[in-house]
Write a structure and sequence with these properties.
Order of helices and strands: HHHHHHHHHHEEEEHEEEEEEE
Strand content: 15-25%
Helix content: 40-55%
Number of strands: 11
Number of helices: 11
Number of domains: 2
Largest sheet: 6 strands, antiparallel
Shape: elongated
Oligomer: single chain
Amino acid sequence: MINYSKAENASIILRLIVGWTYFSALWRRVALSDKLDMESAGWIGIKFNYFLPNALGIKPIIEFLVENPDLLQVNMIAFTIIEGVVGLALMVGFMSRFMSLAASGLAFGILLGSGWLGSTCLDEWQIGVLGISGGLMLAILGPGRYSVDSLFLRSNNVFHRIDRFMWKMLSGKKVTIGLAGLAFFITLATNQIYHGGLWGPLHNLSKMPEIQVSEATLKGDDLTFGITRVEGIDVYGNFIVGIRISDDSGNEVVFENGELQRRLEIKNFRPAKIGFTPYAMTVELGSRGEVRIPDLDSIKGDNPQITLIDVNGKEWRFDVEKE
């Protein structure tokens, strides 16, 4: 007969909640809506693209995937299945210690990718650090009486042996204190890196949009430039309502409203897009594209500049190289 402690039995509370946070990813992407369809507006790959601008440590991996959509789709399907399996296993209490560590690993990946996001609170960061700590706690506590594991652990089978091995590995006081210290360090470090939560000015990279322009070149009468959105809220694109091109001879061309769509040619490189409404050019978070404006025959002077004007009045001004 296995004797379970009250604390171990109470792990069902955490198991159900942590488990659902992961299983619900599969449920909402497959059962409630087809978020694995690359052609749908709710494709999970676009959400993954939003992580890119300020991801920590794994930014090159995210960038490679979002710029190779077929590989991204394979990874999104695999990641969704893994989340579903880990979540369901935790809820029913199957291989609980192993799945708890897997949940911590998933939470760590989420933290590195999206811990900087959250326009009204530090929501993605909180999800990540609480997922890590909750998974580690469950791995130490074990499955408890109210679990599938409690049936398997009564006999000397492979599941029993795996659980006993992990229990011996995790149950020592030094290991517990070490894991607590690791989780606390990750929490404090990411809080500071993402948000300035320990010292210095607080910052929120999800609050206001930020645009970067690269390789702006005027060749003859054609202007081309790269545009990337690196900050701002993830659920709403920022809106460029005007583009002004000028030179130091006083020549100036301004495109506004519907004229933007008529005159600008855009090539997108990522699932998050640069596009148009009837009144503005929309730039989604994490998007990267090339913009071409042909027939700028009035910009003849030296030192041309391009200015992007957002709907809220914010402007971004960049120098243009003239060939």
